[in-house]
Amino acid sequence: MFLENTVNHKEQFGWIEVICGSMFSGKTEELIRRLKRAQFAKQKVEIFKPMVDTRYHEDMVVSHDANEIRSTSVPSAANIRILGDTCDVVGIDEAQFFDDEIITVCNDLANKGVRVVVAGLDMDFKGTPFGPMPALMATAEYVTKVHAICTRTGNLASYSFRKSDNDDLVMLGETEEYEPLSRAAFYKAMLKEKVKNMKVESEEVTIIKKKKSNG
Questions:
Q1: How far, in Å, CA of 187 to CA of 62, rounded?
Q2: pTM for the model
Q3: How far is it, in rounded angstroms, from Cα 15 to Cα 12?
Q4: Averaged pLDDT for residues 181-194
Q5: Mean pLDDT, the chain, as a whole number?
Q6: Which one of 17, 30, 94, 179 is the catalytic residue?
Q7: What is the dihedral of CA 141, 100, 78, 159, to 10 degrees?
Q8: Among candidate residues 57, 48, 100, the one with its CA nearest the CA of residue 75
Q9: Domains along the chain?
């Protein structure tokens, strides 16, 4: 799939590869696989992740099945431009947590001859495009969408359903907080949440009205 053996040695160029999908779909696992291949080939590789991602290890990118590779945590995308400028390959995990500057950084590195491999969630827990991921996918030469298995239907899953009531866009978590769902299962789960919230609001209105009438 990747034309690593067709490099034109007379002209230095790079490209962007995006690996996207839901929670538990193997995005980080695929990222680590590609980066380790580059390391075996004696290429200069640097891996970066956002400082907010502290789930497994401060200095490692770690997949859900405990595969890992050494990385650097950075507070912003600007740090990646500086630290990755002299690399052959730059890997970026959890790209959805960076601001839109990550789009410019990835393209600048690719334009300088760096192979940039990016992994991230393409949709948030509400099923909407997540942060800079859509723009990265649009400007990338290669996009790979990986899938999890739906915990409710057994079909392919591309949605990350949040099981808690936390509405914060950024909330790190594992199987206790998230589950991968198919389109149909996700639609039903979101509809159920909507109905539940409507009932709660209705009950609150009823209580307020009773208090007013008794007051």
A1: 30
A2: 0.80
A3: 11
A4: 94
A5: 85
A6: 94
A7: -70
A8: 48
A9: 4-214 (3.40.50.300)
| Residue 201 or residue 146, greater confidence | 146
pLDDT digits (tens, 9 = 90+) for 82-115: 999 899 999 999 999 999 999 999 999 999 999 9
Rounded CA gap, 22 and 145, in Å? 9
> Which pair of tokens denotes residue 153?
């239907």
Tokens standing for 136? Answer: 């990265």
Distance CA 85, CA 30 (A): 23
Say how many CA atoms lie within 13 Å of 70 toward its Cβ: 3
Q: 3-class DSSP state for residue 176?
A: coil
Q: Is 94 a catalytic residue?
A: yes
Q: Which tokens in the block code for residue 108?
A: 């600048």
The rounded distance, in Å, linking the Cα atoms of 166 and 187 is 19
Q: What DSSP character marks residue 170?
A: -
For 15-41, the DSSP string reads EEEEEEESTTSSHHHHHHHHHHHHHHT
Helix (H, G, I), strand (E, B) or coil at 184: helix
Burial class (CB in 10 A: 0-12, 13-18, 19+), 196: exposed
Q: Mean of the pLDDT values across residues 59-84?
A: 77
Residue 30, pLDDT score = 96
Q: Which tens digit of pLDDT belongs to each residue from 123-177?
A: 999 999 999 999 999 999 999 999 999 999 999 999 999 988 777 776 765 667 8
